[in-house]
């Protein structure tokens, strides 16, 4: 299909239609234009045309933001959340986490979606704790511990995020140490409940995995039996805390 737009010849196929429809519905959405640009990167000429259309369409400082997405935060901080959504959608999670961290730490930037700094902090912790293999530019441990010091009235979710980060990183003993410290230091029923159920699920999965491993072995060793008994005992002792 071919269209003419202010002397720009626009050619697009069936796979471009969803993006064109998005632009028609909301021609001033930076996120929609950036999503379209990302889609067209496989065709250099096509991406240049999309950029040119976006720069003609968007007002004011948005044009500069679009001309270089690396300058997006500096020049368009008011739309940073939209940019985080876009980066997350296309799998650039390290960049998304960097931008979200800047939103959290800049007191002059307010959420366009009406979210509190604590809500944004929780979103950041969830993003970085669930994707340890993709976050390279941030110190995840330091960020979450910073939240623990900053939001002392809502600690359960943050402790769980820290333990989850180490668990997903394969550092299970470190994750267990964090759960143990959390469950011994939280002071509210809500925080204890959040940590307890997350910790119990962690131990249950650990026990279940080991039981399957032993069951699949023709001749389990004495060490296997001892390890299994230790995990079962640990899980039972945890349940007694209720």
Could you explain how this protein is built, in words?
The radius of gyration is 24 Å and the shape is elongated. It folds into three domains: 67 residues, no CATH class; 75 residues, no CATH class; 90 residues. With 242 residues, it is mostly helical.
Summarize the structure.
With 242 residues, the chain is mostly helical. It has helices at residues 17-25, 30-40, 44-57, 62-67, 72-75, 80-89, 93-105, 117-130, 140-150, 156-168, 172-185, 189-215, 222-239, and strands at residues 2-5, 8-11. Helix 7 packs antiparallel against helix 8 (117-130).
Number of helices: 13
Gyration radius (Cα, Å) is 24 Å
The poorly predicted ranges are 1-8
Please state how the strands of the largest beta sheet are arranged side by side. 1-2
Shape: elongated
The figure for the number of domains is: 3
Share of helix, binned:
55-70%
Distance between the termini: 65 Å
Question: Order of SSEs, N→C?
Answer: EEHHHHHHHHHHHHH
Largest sheet descriptor: 2 strands, antiparallel
Q: How many extended strands?
A: 2
Mean pLDDT: 83
Structural class: mainly alpha
Give the strand content. Answer: under 5%
